[in-house]
Design brief:
single chain; about 230 residues; alpha+beta; four-stranded mixed beta sheet; 4 strands; binds glutathione
Length: about 230
């Protein structure tokens, strides 16, 4: 059976949503990143980048959330345009845009806003600006069409949902007002039974909640080294 290595964080939740949407049978394997389980040799053999999510599906090992969405979309033939469809290029562009732009910039905005030991105005301004600029691009797209690609709900919407639903925590509560169409999509997806099941999954395993020194040292490896 497909093994899904996960935690309740945004990137694994995109994949949990897709697994629940497709109805594929899977075994959820918790990786408690606050305890450092992402750094065990067993997990590094699955994802050398030491992050969740990852899946092992028979002979195939796939890591990085958007790569997994694409893999599962191709495997099932669901939630994405078929090979040769004119929308395939758009799908790849938006999927990569979310993976390489929205995710990293909003991640850094959260880091400098909530976790950096010093408040560095330059870093805060740059990452808050870039996070908003990226969400603004999604907002403009969703002002013109209901879903990110074509006229059907699919894997890019799931990728967006995983990250954008945390806008209030990541950027601030007031930011929803700037992105009404993004909020419309997030709310629509969150109301789906598959999203409820994905959220419920997190309660099946007990993950550490404290963000203590052990958690910081497991997730922020740069704290222990000086490279600049
Ligand atoms: N590009 C990766 C990023 C994965 C990622 O950042 N995962 C976070 C949870 S959302 C994680 O594992 N954090 C633990 C750590 O950084 O040690 C993806 O899209 O899957």
């Amino acid at each position: 059976m497909l093994k899904f290595y996960y935690s309740g964080a945004p990137n694994p939740m995109k994949v949990a949503l897709m697994l629940e949407e497709t109805g594929l049978p899977y075994e959820a394997v918790p990786v408690d990143t606050r305890k450092g389980e992402q750094h065990t040799p067993e997990f590094l053999a699955i994802n050398p980048n030491a992050k969740v999510p990852a899946i092992v599906d028979g002979d195939a090992t796939v890591f990085d959330s958007n790569a997994i969405l694409l893999y599962l979309g191709e495997k099932t033939g669901k939630f994405m345009p078929a090979k040769g469809d004119r929308l395939r290029g758009e799908l790849l562009s938006w999927l990569m845009f979310v993976a390489s732009g929205v995710g990293p910039f909003s991640g850094q905005a959260v880091h400098f806003r909530q976790y950096a030991p010093e408040k560095i105005p330059y870093a805060l301004n740059r990452y808050m600006f870039e996070a908003q600029r990226h969400y603004g691009i999604l907002e403009a797209r969703l002002a013109k069409q209901k879903y990110m690609v074509g006229d059907a709900y699919g894997i890019v919407d799931m990728a967006v949902w995983g990250l954008a639903r945390l806008i209030p925590n990541a950027l601030g509560e007031e930011y929803w007002a700037k992105f009404p169409n993004l909020k419309r999509l997030v709310d629509e997806i969150s109301a789906r039974p598959a999203a409820a099941r994905a959220n419920e999954l997190r309660t099946k395993h007990k993950f550490k909640t404290e963000f203590d020194d052990e958690a910081k040292r497991a997730m922020f490896k740069h704290l222990d080294v000086k490279v600049a």
